[in-house]
Automatic annotation (TrEMBL):
Keywords: Membrane, Transmembrane, Transmembrane helix. It comes from Terrabacter tumescens. Residues 1-45 are annotated as: Disordered. This is VWFA domain-containing protein. The keyword DNA-binding does not apply. The chain crosses the membrane at residues 49-67. Residues 373-565 form the VWFA domain. InterPro entries: VWF_A (IPR002035), vWFA_dom_sf (IPR036465). Residues 25-40 have a biased composition (Basic and acidic residues).
């Protein structure tokens, strides 16, 4: 008896050959893959991927590793950590592109593929995965990339207001609809109750990002406001706003007892591709929602770089990239992606909510959102001029600081100080660059961006860390704001180096005497690259119930700083 694969093992008359360890391991790998596919069959994974994998395993004998490689290549799930070097030239121009997170892996894969072409532009494209809200608020100086891929034209207006530029929206090259991600058993239990009022106003907790900072949340809450009763909308916002950030993660959702998350189809596709054992189902609301629309916005004023950005834009509309986009859950000019599987409901687009509706949503949200007032003191001692990969430590800190400030909630208030020996007007070890101001005001962000961009004019000398902490704590306490988390955030590149200022013991005594339970100020110290005196900083922050965070590299500063600012 024979089957599709040739002679059956039960046919004892068939000629036999010796199977070596390597081939045996391949067969075992194949069996594991097939078993896993049968287990996931109820989730209706795409059969074309399974067939392709099986063909490769049988014909080429490359085992399970090939399966994983093929899957990742069809749906990119991570951003390249280094710029792809083109084969067309020896000394490429470095071009930095800030890209909305959901599409960043695909853009990274496209940039890598473009670099491998014999006619590739002479460019090394670095892809930075950045929330569009954050990029829009940090284009005035140190945080400005050469190009930007945003997920909504609404952020263009924010960028123009903060950076005082005149950027214009460009034609989107891709879009993706909005869905809810949840476990399959929870999704199947919904039945026909698929309106936004059912999905957002029920008993299932839904992860929703801050609509001030997320196009998805703007679109969903704006549409839902038309059908969700005001009391239920208020309840939803009250439970979501205090812990919401600028984006939503699907981590842990597959293991949670219940829950859902508002995401794009592309984000869900990428999650399922990267987590085959934790796949989530898609639920489409009956009213629909406006999709996310991705466009490339050139920012560089360098003519040579502008041409390279244009070449990348052209490749993003090529047939190869459009197929990659469609496989990853994006719509393109040449076609739409397959619906997520399983999908409950029908994916529909809705019109954008009105300005009046959004204003009501923002008012409710901001009333419940957590609020932070922070004094940020940044180290500008001479060690900041040392180079890290491709830039000085100061340059990385500048970019990280403006992006972190632009990423936090617009309800936050911040002031910026710098410190090094005798940097102040009266030979103090500290200097105020900007007074406390709301980050929801474009003028305030512009002032902060400009101040951070100009930090290189102050760099030099040693670190007057202890005197700075004492003075900054006094200032934060005197400016204490009720209803806010009042914080002093210190970015430290090394230990205290002022032998004539406060000692560690005197600093601790001074903080203990100044501490006021009725006007609490929390101290957070961010040590860069392990240079700070961790033991001393632990003692300092413990006086006020604060926190010391050590980042292994300068590049890790941005997320840590954003978190310290309540981001």
């Amino acid at each position: 008896m024979t089957g599709p694969g040739g002679t059956s093992p039960e046919d004892s008359s068939a000629p036999r050959r010796r199977i070596g360890p390597y081939e045996q391991s391949l067969r075992e790998s194949r069996e594991r893959v097939e078993a896993a596919e049968r287990e996931r069959a109820r989730r209706r994974r795409r059969t074309r991927v399974v067939a392709a994998v099986a063909t490769v395993v049988v014909a080429a004998g490359v085992g399970y590793g090939a399966y994983r490689y093929i899957g990742q290549r069809d749906v990119p799930t991570s951003v390249p950590t280094v710029a792809a070097q083109p084969t067309s030239c020896a000394k490429p121009v470095k071009v930095r592109v800030a890209v909305a997170p959901a599409i960043a892996p695909v853009v990274g894969a496209a940039a890598t593929a473009l670099a491998q072409r014999p006619d590739a532009p002479c460019a090394a494209f670095t892809i930075d995965s950045e929330e569009p809200f954050s990029v829009a608020g940090s284009l005035a100086g140190a945080g400005r990339p050469d190009a930007w891929i945003t997920d909504s034209s609404v952020w263009i207006g924010r960028a123009n207001a903060v950076s005082r530029s005149s950027l214009a929206p460009t034609e989107p090259f891709a879009s993706t609809p909005v869905v809810l991600a949840m476990k399959d058993d929870a999704a199947s239990a919904l039945g026909t109750r698929l309106g936004w009022a059912d999905l957002l106003g029920g008993t299932v907790p839904v992860r929703i990002p801050d609509p001030n900072r997320s196009a998805i949340a703007r679109n969903v809450l704006g549409v839902a406001a038309a059908t969700l009763p005001v009391p239920r909308m208020r309840s939803l916002v009250t439970s979501s706003a205090p812990t919401a950030g600028g984006g939503v993660t699907l981590d842990g959702l597959a293991q949670a007892r219940s829950g859902a998350a508002v995401v794009s189809q592309a984000q869900l596709v990428a999650w399922n591709a990267a987590h085959p054992e934790e796949q989530l189902s898609a639920v489409a609301a009956s009213e629909g929602a406006p999709p996310l629309e991705y466009s490339l916005v050139p920012l560089t004023t360098d003519d040579a770089k502008a041409g390279l950005v244009k070449a990348l834009g052209a490749y993003l509309t090529s047939s190869a990239t459009q197929k990659l986009l469609q496989d990853s859950g994006f719509r393109t000019a040449s076609g739409d992606p397959k619906d997520p599987s399983p999908l409950y409901g029908e994916i529909r687009d809705a019109a954008a909510p009105s300005s009046a509706t959004l204003a009501g949503v923002f008012s409710l949200w901001n009333a419940s959102a957590r609020k932070t007032q922070a004094l940020i003191a940044v180290d500008v001692s001479g060690s900041m001029l040392e180079r890290t990969e491709g830039a000085t430590r100061l340059a990385v800190v500048q970019k990280s600081t403006v992006r972190a400030l632009a990423a936090v909630s617009p309800t936050a208030v911040a002031s910026l100080w710098i410190y090094s020996l005798h940097v102040g007007n009266r030979a103090d070890d500290y200097r105020q660059l900007t007074a406390y101001a709301g980050l929801g005001v474009a003028k305030s962000l512009t002032a902060l961006d400009s101040a951070v961009t100009g930090l290189d004019t102050y760099v030099g000398g040693g670190s007057g860390l202890y005197d700075t902490i004492a003075a900054a704590y006094d200032r934060a306490k005197s400016a204490w704001r009720p209803g806010f988390t009042n914080t002093l955030v210190v970015v430290a590149d090394g230990p205290n180096e002022d032998d004539y200022g406060l000692s560690l013991d005197l600093l601790k005594k001074r903080l203990a005497a100044a501490k006021d339970a009725k006007r609490p100020v929390r101290i957070v110290v961010l040590g860069i690259g392990g240079r700070a005196d961790a033991a001393a900083m632990q003692q300092v922050v413990s006086v006020t119930g604060g926190q010391y965070i050590s980042t292994r590299t300068v590049e890790e500063l941005q997320p840590a700083l954003a978190k310290a600012l309540g981001g």
